[in-house]
Structures
1.
Amino acid sequence: MELIQPISWEDALAAKAAYPDARAIRGGTDLMIELGAGDRLPATILDLGRVAKLAEWSLDDGHVVLGAGVTFTELIDELSCELPALAMAARTVGSPQIRNRGTVGGNLGTASPAGDAHPPLLATDAQVKLASARGARWIGIGELFAGPKRTTLEPDELIECVRMPRASGSQQFSKIGTRNAMVISVCSFALAIDPSRRRVGTGIGSAGPVPLVAEEAGRFLEGVLTEADAWESGAPLGESAAARFGELVSAAARPIDDVRGTADYRRHALAVLARRALGWARGARDELIG
Amino acid sequence: MRLECVVNGEPRDVAGVRESESLLQVLRERMKLPGAKNACEQGECGSCSVFLDGKLVCSCLVLAGQAEGAEIVTIEGLADGDALSPLQEAFIETGAVQCGFCTPGFILAAHDLLQRQPSPSDAEIREALAGNLCRCTGYAKIIEAVRVAADRMTT
Amino acid sequence: MASANVLAGDQLTRTREGIGERTLRPDGTLKVSGEFAYSSDLWAEDMLWGATCRSPHPSARIRSIDTSAARAVPGVVAVLTHEDVPGRKTYGLEEPDQPVLAWDLVRYQGEPVAIVAADHPATAREAARRIVVDYEVLEPLVDPDEALDASARALHPAGNVVRHLSIRHGSVEEHAGTADVVVRGEYEIGMQDQAMLGPESGLAVPDGDGGVHLYIATQWLHQDLNQVAASLGLEQDMVRLTQAGIGGAFGGREDLSMQIHACLLALHTDRAVKMSYSREESFFGHVHRHPARMRYEHGATTDGRLVYVKARLVLDGGAYASTSRSVCLVSGTFAVGPYECPNAEIDAYAVYTNNPPCGAMRGFGAVQVCFGYEAQMDKLAAAVGLDPLEIRRRNAMRTGGLMPTGQPVVGPAPVEEVLRHLQETPMPEQLPGDGERLDQRELPGGVANVTRGEGLRRGVGYAVSIKNIGFCEGYDDYSTARVRLWASHGEPIAEVHTAACEVGQGLVTIHAQIARTELGVRRALVRPADTTVGNAGSSSASRQTVITGGAVKAACEAVRERVLELARERLDGDVEADDLILEDCYVASRSRGPLMPLADLLGEQVIVEEREWRPRPTLPLDENGQGDVHAMIAFAAHRAVVDVDVELGLVRVVELTAVQDVGKALNPLAVEGQIEGGTAQGMGLALMEEIRVQGGRILNPSFTDYLIPTIVDMPPVRVEILELAQPDSPYGVNGVGEPPMISSGPAVMAALRAATGRELAHVPARPEHLAGLSGELSWR
């Protein structure tokens, strides 16, 4: 096995072009497990750990541009106000040790259906910048996932950064696990209400071959907010609207039975999570300690 | 390949490392520092915790080559000569050690917490140590050890 | 060999703590410094690494094994199969039915077929993957009830029933009609894993004379020795075992794992060989707790007094016998729990299947039935309108009371007392009300943000455990201790040498405390356990503090007798014989105080005594399942307080209270640690711990999907220790390790039922069960 350790992003892209089969590593929190203590080795590993620019984030015209190498710990410490749902999701990723190494770019590149960052990125309409020696392209986050652990990246491409609007309204992220820390999600849900764009974003994790958007649920809620002229007011919406929203989120899921939970449970839990998240987003029980 | 890094303040230069080895394997098998433990080698137990350039990480998930040029602190580097750190003392005194396989990881994770938050609440202790599994103690005495050490270090 | 220094280093204790005092571990400094040598830390110059080729199929016939590709891998030194096992080709704790390396048939997924030694662990594993085994895949037999059926394919020559235990106590037939209330229940317990953090590992070093020295993490050195020597075809004096540092055990190290394999490779290559399992391999490399299917019927009077209990228990032993016979005995004999019941009809079965082999795990058969009988007691309480504590009190076992085997409990049976303590323990704070500020870390799901009080219900549950301490059924249970006393630089030093394994529980401390107490010394050394001293029996069945403790005490007493004899000679009859004691490094008179320094008396002499110690003998059961099969009996109880989000089926355990009679707390610090740790493992079984097996295959062999409680999941534990002296036991001590594991889970289950109002027949209770979304029993 060969290990390539570029310092510059240009060298990284050149290396990926030269070795399209190379597996990219940064925090290693996914890839090292896949390698199985050296028993399942690729021919080449491309270590992006030394590419400094990947660890940077910036604000740009009401948007956050997040380098692919920003860790979950940095997200929690530095971006909880700008990206609340993503920061909430980051806090549920693995353990402190994992959050210190694991990155948003890695979470996307692995494309596990259970990736905790995916639902908030979907809910906030994030764009992903895919770069190669040939040039760069932006795609919507939803276009990145091709299937369980499969992406639409070209063999010579690497994930450079993601870009999404700073939160202008309420965001929530909730994740079901069978224990109360360090757990892979049984299912998860993210909600982003963006009054400035009159937009409701949703994201569903671990309930389909890829992370999903509950399109109809989002449109339904946008309609309710517009009809009630409640985009700015933040007033509660009533239980029936919340329940309907939950049902629509649940209906958008395509879960399976597996060792972590049943499809029925996932559908059920998503309806509950979405209903509750909407309540919290509209001001219920939002005073929290810790 | 060759790996050069600083471990517990000492420059180390190890030849013959396989590219596929983890930092944990290199520490344990090539540097003879077995204090980082191999309970799961999947990042799910925290027993292999070390500081890598000041950050608490699972050394099983760091590819050896990624540690080139890095500063690493392992449990073997926590004591000041023969003087144990307050956390190490407190773990012994409170009965937080049984089989001890998880102990190095817990002590390093607690050390990381106390550097950031010298007087943590129980909830903060729990969240900070959530990545370290213990199968013997039921955790009660580990929490007590961290409280005791925090008290001593702040007074 | 570099590791030998650490291994041979005496564990020195300088404290003055004797029995009954909170005594710190002598190995604590090494353990907090990362310098304690666990079995997976050992190395020797020029050593090889071993790896195991395992069957991917739960049931198959081996047509052929081709090792040529493995041998061709550069760095590979040896590849061995069953043909290379020179001695007995099978092993087993109670019945040698398990192949060292499989031939003809494989009976479970992960069964070892061949082993490799190479110069790097990755090379050894790579070679193991290149071994080509031609399997004729067979349909696995995975349902234990089907396996019991006479028409089922026999997995072993004697059929699929490892044991059928039938207990007939009083007459259910005669008295069933007098019961006013009858409650029935079916319960299923999942397969729990010990999940000890230290992987199976060890180092085998050829001794140059055809023998081998194995440094090993085990629970029972001499039983390993018996099995290893038999399979190596060597006399026992050619095989030496030394205990290496052990990263937890909990029953998972009672059966062999890599012991014979490493020795075979070492003898074959004439080089030191280390084997160390990965976590995934560990799930295939040790036995688990028996899954159980239990059907119960309890009859009682309207005032809640038990009239009869009927129980049918089916324990899935998996592919090989391991300790299934004994587990079955314990399940059957404790199927009624810590309650007196005049009539009982109990049938307990342990069966072979093609599932993973099951054997010892903390609680050993008493865990499964506690979930059953305690759920039944709660059903009965509801049926007759009593509260859960009161129905237990009315049926509580008392000293002299009869177990279903007709055996009386001769020691303390403080069931009423433990219940009273639970009742008197204050309740934790109430749920936060509407409008109160919330800390999500104190709610189900924690920071995963699933509830802010929605769906929350609080539940409280109780459970009481009963368990035998020590081995049963006429087994000659004993331990051996050698104690040495000498003086060095004016200070007397006692050294304790046994073969009893320190697995984390704190046995080293106990040995030293006893020596200090009995010999009046300050310095007590504990030699590393090995097979150059007599058998100590297993570090299991909560027996070591009692039985090896008894042997250490007896050996110390013998040493003391000789010292006092010397003192009387020296003092020339100046003292009454029974006036002399050893205290604080002096020979002293009870009436006149210190007489002479012990070190002066000893001079250059070294006094050595070795003793065996035995608990009360036990007897086999008769054909009706009657007899005094158990030596000592221990009791514990738990109260669990849980908050359940009943909509999502997620749980936060708020608090656990444990009350346990330990006879005498020799080291209260360690006793608390055992109770807190056992309580955590029991809670884990109720909430999350289950090896999921489908078609004989393990679905979750990793800590990613086999979940054990984290520090966030574990609530504060209130511990109440009772010290009611056991008769015929050193210092009145009783075993401590298992009882808290047994009742903790059932108390949590009871609390979950109270919160949800659901039956919850399957253990662990999964979110979908708690939310009422799925049928719980696998056989329906």
Note: Chain A touches chain B at residues 1-3, 5, 25, 27-29, 32-33, 35, 37-38, 41, 45, 47, 49, 94-98, 100-101, 181-182, 290 (CB under 8 Å).
2.
Amino acid sequence: MPSQLVEKYFRADKLPQIWCPGCGHGIITRAITAAIDDLGLDPDKVCVVSGIGCSSRAPGYLDFNTLHTTHGRALAFATGIKLANPELKVIVVMGDGDSTAIGGNHFIHACRRNIDITTIIYNNNIYGMTGGQYSPTTPRLEKGTTAPYGNIDKPFDVCNLAAAAGATYVGRSTSYHANLITQLVRNGIKNEGFSLIEAISDCPTYYGRKNKKGGPVEMIQWQKEHAVNVTAASKMTPEQLEGKFLIGEFKNTTEPEYTKEYQKIIDRVKGSDV
Amino acid sequence: MSKKVKLMQGNEACVEGAIAAGMRFYAGYPITPSTEIAELSAEKLPKLGGKFIQMEDEIGGIAAAIGASLTGAKTMTATSGPGFSLKQENIGYAAIAEIPVVIVDVQRSGPSTGQPTSPSQGDMMQAKWGTHGDHPVIALCPSSVRETFDLTVKAFNLAEKYRTPVLLMMDEVIGHMREKVELPEASELEIVDRNRPSCAPEDYLPYKAEENLVPPMADFGTGYRYHVTGLVHDETGFPSNSTEIADQLVRRLVNKVELNKEDIISWEEENTEDADVIIFTYGCVARAARTAMKTLREKGVKVGMFRPITVWPFPEERLAELSKKVKTIVVPEMNLGQMVLEVERVSGKYTKIERLNKVDSQIIYPEEIIAKIEEVL
């Protein structure tokens, strides 16, 4: 029921959104609101924070407490919000360049603290807003406007990075697998700790065009054909998995959550002589 | 009534002032010579139910402080030279998004890593122009431990009243020096809280200014669901490409400080009535200037002193008046000439301006100021 979600959670007067025709970001944003709806969260207590870039325009369309910050800094702002008022449900949306290049330090440390923030990285493998430069997730030898001869950087695996840095809930989906995004975001919000959901998006305007990936339909088709759920993958041979990538829930653990640990300190020392 | 009499450092007085003003959230990153401010905040805030967080870097420190301020908390971050450079990005964000936050810069010698444990006044122009674009600036400059307490309270009050970042420009001497101070009782302090909206959430326009050019600010989580952005925005808070709105916004941001200058600025004068020479001085140098003034007065030289407490906005009207009556203004600074540029702009057409600059990482001594005045008279 997309129209009901739009009516309920979008700032309808701000639509249509600025994303290019065929961009996967709209699907991902809708899938996030579906998770919020499933959980019945009070919109007054939901805070959506972003940095700078295509994906970071999402909060402007969403009817919550919304904060569009500086490039890469969304998680640092969100950490302040969550620690100051832990009753708020804090959701952060970032792009691949925003989160893993300029915001890389904030990203790994938010994971490490296991602060109760749910982060969705819209990964379209390119800097879209600035016109198609290669990002830390652009695959090797693929092209961007600043990699005219092919990218020689080794890309980050965003999920492995988050899991290694200490995030307690980690999963990946794609703009084709929209229901899985909703499921992962729902579980991420329920997780009392730092949750990272990587949502593979398609950028037909820059990444697709530069790398001859076809139009939006072909790019979404590619996601469908190359994504393998982690549970199915366990029964597949390395040959069958050749050229594929994994989606699904990768990590779901329980560890002390930052704001709750801080509250324990307050409970212990509050009222003692200042 | 027993007063709280203590021997304390400027950095300690800063934390005492912040807590008295209502600070309940601190986010920062360790850097000499401001570190005691973080350490004491870490110790004291949880005792008050407040929060402290050591972030991963200087940028994260100010970002977290701004984020926390959006929930209604009074927040602060403290740093020194290299960290002040890093914080400039989000000082601009707090300025355009109109989010109260206090930023303390305990100045040390630069450029770059410079001399981390040595004093300086090298960041005075960075305070004014450090972040890009036109923006409002309020910067206060204490010259004693007790004044550090008072100006930290004032910094919070101004940040709340004008919805803007406020800079407390300390220096290594003021930060680390210990003095006997008598702190005021809480009941003696005027504490300002931000103006919050009284209208229904559906009628709230987060960036519609009131008569004093400041819009009321709602706390996140209280039912006023609104949008905050560093992009140029209209009264609703949403981005706008309108040239007219861009012009109105930037002018209003700057004017809310400039047109309320009388309420914001303060300065101190000593012996200016009959002065032939005025020492224009601020921060730790004012202490040496006072000694120099007294010594020269004893010799019959008519020396006065003008000390801006608010360095930005600059107290130019009063300085211009005084300039018409004196032969010379001497400007000792622990930099190669920063605030003197303002003195020259304001007073240059009325009187002679003499510079005294030092960047060897040592304080300016009274004898050096005396020698300069005797040389130029």
Note: Residues 2-269 of chain A form a domain with the Rossmann fold fold (CATH 3.40.50.970).
